[in-house]
Amino acid sequence: MDTESTYSGYSYYSGRSRGSHRHGERSRDRHKSRSKDSRSEKSVTINTPPAEPLLGDTAVRGEQVQDDNWGETTTAVTGTSEHSLSQEDIVRITKDLEDSVGLDCRRYFTRTLAIILGLLVFLTPLAFLVLPHILWPDKLQSCGTACEGLFISVAFKLLILLLAVWALFFRPARAGLPRVYVFRALLAVLVLLFVISYWLFYGVRILDSQDENYQGIVQYAVSLVDALLFIHYLAIVLLELRQLQPCYSVCVTRSTDGETRHYNLGQLSIQRAALAIIEHYYCDFPVHNPALLSASKSRAAKHLAGLKVYNVDGPGNNAAAGIAHSQSRAMIAAAARRRDTSHNELYYEEAEHERRVRKRRARLVVAVEEAFTHIKRMQEEEQKKAPGDVMDPREAAQAIFPSMARALQKYLRTTKQQHCHSMESIQQHLAFCITNNMTPKAFLESYLTPGPTVQYSRDFWRARQWTLISEASVTNGLKDGTIFLLKCVDFSLVVTSKKIPYIQMSEEYIDPKSHKFVLRLQSETSV
Amino acid sequence: MSFVPGQPVTAVVERIEIQKLRQGENLILGFSIGGGIDQDPGQNPFSEDKSDKGIYVTRISPKGPADLAGLKIGDKIMQVNGWDMTMVTHDQAHKKLTKKKEDVVRLLVTRKSLEEAVKQSKGSYPKH
């Protein structure tokens, strides 16, 4: 079920734009990608199949084929050891991928291709116009007024084409996708074929025969530029307009804590849909807090730890699969029969935690409000105060921070958010709030509710490397019932898509004069 | 036949007993009622006092059970099988008349001609 797309090793990236004269941008991007710290841009990569399995299933099975004393000396399998193994695995693999040089080569390859194509496209009409003057100037007819008018039109159309290409393609790349962006590749091939066919025609009919009708040559160049503008129109429609109309409703769920959001997407390929979803994820989903999940993990461990399963028949008698099957069934049956009071503990624990959080929150709000009363904005007429008393926002923040620091720290500890906010960031935020005349409540807002991932500092973003796992090929379009996974180091996002139904609407005409009313007569019922 | 709030209602009534007729799976009485405390009393063509919200007989099917029992159009129904009909909604009156388990309804109805008949009979007997 979890087949991962592995073709990208042999296909070239075409996440880059095609266009010309991008030297400035190129050097900027080279600077970015050369840095080993790839945290400045996201990339979607392929997860190469790891050498060891992600979950330690076979490890568990392997232990069963051991001596009889094994069952007595070990406790049951807990959940945490499997987790730590798989996370280390993935982190190791992603580190390897980051260090690989192959990625950069592919990106430069596509970029150079795009630049060559762009130069070819722009210089071709100019070449068509200039070559006759160079090769057979004496035979050439002089250019009349109509012909010179066509020069102006060629110039302006080329300018418009240049601006349009700049607007559409000269945008900083948002991500590196695993496979070729199919539409762009098709368009590039189309343009190439087109230009080649024009050159063929030009070479055979005009260069070889040394045509003297210069006006005809100029008109030929104008037709080329017109056709290029139409191809650009096609590019806009295919690349930008087609996916605007919403067609599918996708449901995105985070695997660790179940946060779910729904988005509307148009007709996109799976990789582009994944990219759109990741961008929405950074803006909409509250930040992932692994500290909040430890409670359920410990409960799960307690469920398993309460039972010990002994294999009395000895290993090797049944097949490995049979042993695992009967073991799990025995465990499930035993767990069902056992009188479980863990729900009681959960209820009281949660009530207690809720009470504690609210108490700490009340203390925090009071402390912050009191702290904010200690400073006030200096008015213009108070300029006569000694310069030692006058503070800029950062100093003011540092002055009032100690009085609320303890309450804030305790609150963050209770809600397990202390690793999201560093002392420095809190002081910066405080200075920011003071500068903008914000109330204590506004200052506290970012600590009371977990915000979207984008709002936290860069090093907290953690996951920059996303892996797209899908059964269908990632260049296929989204369809009804498509399911794929976006995995990053800590968690994964499960995405399912559903088609928005076709709506059949009919009309009904109401004549405005038909709104008439009468008083209700006594109703008469027969018995 | 109007009433003064707080004072008991007095009227001369006639006792009418109607046997329900089975028609298909329904039991019918053969007349229609109108009125009720949730209806507009001003629309009642049969009442003397246009603020009277009682239940009136508005139509009688000819040769039906009600016709044969002597019910007249314009009668005001005061009681049905002991249930009061002077302060009920239209639906409640309908329900009391169409109970499936009862084969016979005993109505107490009043009409203007009854009052006059009593007055006449009173007047014709000199008091001594």
H-E order of chain A: HEHHHHHHHEEHHHHHHHEEEE
DSSP strand count of chain A: 7
Would you tell me the overall average pLDDT of chain A?
77
Beta-strand percentage of chain B? 25-35%
Low-confidence stretches of chain B: none
Question: What general form of chain B does the structure show?
Answer: globular
| Low-pLDDT regions of chain A | 1-66, 74-85
Distance between the termini of chain A: 69 Å
Which percent bin holds the helix content of chain B?
A: 10-25%
Largest interface: A-B, 9 and 17 residues
Number of continuous helical runs of chain B: 3
| Quaternary assembly | heterodimer
Q: Kindly name the structural category of chain B.
A: alpha+beta
Count of distinct strands of chain B: 8
N-to-C SSE series of chain B? EEEEEHEEHEH
Helix content of chain A: 40-55%
Radius of gyration of chain A: 34 Å
What is the typical, i.e. mean, pLDDT of chain B?
A: 88
Major sheet attributes of chain B: 6 strands, antiparallel
Number of helical segments with 4 or more residues of chain A: 15
Describe the structure.
The complex is a heterodimer of chains A (about 525) and B (about 130). Chain A has about 525 residues and is of the alpha+beta class. Chain A is built from 15 helices and seven strands. Chain A has helices spanning about 25-35, 55-65, 70-75, 80-100, 100-135, 145-170, 180-205, 215-240, 270-285, 295-305, 320-335, 340-370, 395-415, 425-435, 440-450, and strands spanning about 45, 250-255, 260-265, 465-470, 485, 490-500, 525. In chain A, strands 1-4-5-6-2-3 form a six-stranded mixed β-sheet, with helices on one face. In chain A, strand 5 (about 485) and strand 6 (about 490-500) form a beta hairpin. In chain A, helix 6 runs parallel beside helix 8, helix 12 runs antiparallel to helix 13 and helix 13 (about 395-415) crosses helix 14 (about 425-435). The radius of gyration of chain A is 34 Å and the shape is extended. Chain A starts with about 20 loop residues before the first helix and ends with a strand. Residues about 1-65 and about 75-85 of chain A have low confidence and may be disordered. In chain B, strands 1, 4, 5, 6, 7 and 8 form a six-stranded antiparallel β-sheet that branches. A two-stranded antiparallel ribbon of chain B has the order 2-3. Chain B starts with 13 loop residues before the first strand and ends with a helix. Chain B is of the alpha+beta class and about 130 residues long. Chain B contains three helices and eight strands. The mean pLDDT of chain B is about 90. In chain B, strand 6 (about 75-80) and strand 7 (about 85) form a beta hairpin. The radius of gyration of chain B is 16 Å and the shape is globular. At the A-B interface, strand 7 of A face strand 4 and helix 2 of B.
